């Protein structure tokens, strides 16, 4: 069959695990010792690599004497065999790596640590073997490193098969059922394991009628998916509908305090865990954008979450309960309602009320995955609650995988943000809050942090597309997300090097350099040509692609910019606005409160100012809008030039896909520039100081 024939499914791109990424290891004499399930996976990987590149492979018992090996991957001899080979893949994920005279030993804390140790060696390539003598220990910052899929089993009439998916269809479902052939899921699981992901929720948080049945009638298919992920140390979670007792159980209520409802969930959990003993738990979007929840019964979110938590507790299951709760039917005329306030107003009063196995999953910003938002104050407001930081790897609001936008720098900035100091200092960062390290850091004056980690969750950007992620460069986002979950302090520019080194092995250094030129500043470039100074949205309603300045201005969604002839922005100050700034601890509540101290990039998120307001940068707001929009498109042109110079050096199919995406990015960025500039010229009547063309 030719590439153009109908039904042709190209082999998926190897992403960061092409065969050549295993060359250094594959040329060595490698020993694998361990008898757990993941040791089996490691042994298969090593056997394949050594067969391909001429090395040798042997499998030994832990503790057997080893002679003449370049690399030994073994369970630590003092590891208790139960946890090493048992069913808990989160246990023993760490490993110790020693290198002496070129001989490398990886001693894993448990079965999962062997797998992570293997991929660490793969990442290092030759440097694993020819580096100086070393003795290092590696362990993840948290055991909760999760990806959420917004995949529907059926194709949804409006949202398609994958909600906010830009990479083709679902990896898991086809034609309204779980795929018979899960080989692509297997490849995906391998890619995720290589970057350290260890949990995956396999269906959309908007749980429609068909998808609700994954919990019951289709459980057998979930068992099959879980078996694939298990070989890679990854647990499966399901998103469930809070109304499941009604939808699936024929009850007349899903009131969390109703005993029949609670029993229904107890039985549901018992069925799931007896079929999948290492099942992870449930993800719940309740009372949000039309999803059912406890409010219908006059109950709180703690009532709802805790009822589910009790049902899964006997199995060490988790409830990921999303904090994305706001009124999506507000009246745009009503200036006193502020969507940004909603999550804090709902959840802060419930701090301390959630069961120990509830993780409250909080989007990084108070609105909705915008290119720029302040970090959500909910993350700082619940010291007695397990908190997970939720990111969006899928680029809903950042170019939908048609634009090259590397989000590593944005995530890194969020992870490093400290609520209790302007310059970091010794106070906990967002990463500390999500990984539980906050407990160990100096008391920030807000009371001690009592709960264990809630970890990280993010919406996946992968689908059945040949390149997994639509834009081949969007693979870098999936890569960086996994690696930052493992170690939030990693430098996103270094992660780009890692990703490029693995994905384009053997390519001339010019390719790596061009990728830096294209991607390092791409998040800020996208920000420049889209909505200015933190004001957000201005996208086409519904699909959220492309500019539409007033698209949401008179809708019920709560995402307004309030531009008029004199000025723009949302007054969220305590003194004259919605009071949102007061949800932050000091010093940020004061910093955000005043236009004198508010950082430029968030000015319009926090304040309504005249177009002539002078920014810290020295520019007026209106001139900043014009300048950044021209600069953003210029930057896209430079990105394209840099890539064009090296694209003949990479796989032509990949080059072709990138070229096609760049053409669209340039078209779209130009459209953004012209619509935004024209809109504000017409509103303000203030011309561009530099006299450039504005329509
Ligand atoms: O960003 C918004 C999206 C919705 C999504 C929702 C959420 C799954 O536009 O498509 O629904 O957030 O996070 O629940």
Q: Can you tell me the CATH architecture of the largest domain?
A: Alpha-Beta Barrel
Task: Assess the beta-strand content as a share of residues.
Answer: 5-15%
Shape: globular
User: The CATH topology of the largest domain, please?
Assistant: TIM Barrel
Mean pLDDT figure: 94
Physical arrangement of strands within the biggest beta sheet: 7-12-13-14-15-16-17-18
Please compute the radius of gyration using only Cα atoms.
25 Å
CATH superfamily of the largest domain: Glycosidases
Biggest sheet record: 8 strands, parallel, barrel
Please give the alpha-carbon distance between the first and last residues.
Answer: 50 Å
Count every helix, treating DSSP H or I runs of 4 or more residues as helices.
Answer: 22
Helix content: 25-40%
How many DSSP E strands?
20
Bound molecules: 4-O-methyl-beta-D-glucopyranuronic acid
How many separate domains make up the residues?
Answer: 3
| Unreliable stretches | 80-89
Describe this structure in words.
α15 packs across α16 (492-503) and α16 (492-503) packs across α17 (509-519). The model is unreliable at 80-89 (pLDDT under 50). Helices cover 34% and strands 13% of the residues. It has an 8-stranded parallel beta barrel with strand order 7-12-13-14-15-16-17-18. It is of the alpha/beta class and 695 residues long. 4-O-methyl-beta-D-glucopyranuronic acid (GCW) binds at residues 150, 163-164, 205-206, 285, 324, 368-369, 396. 4-O-methyl-beta-D-glucopyranuronic acid binds next to loops. Keywords: Hydrolase.
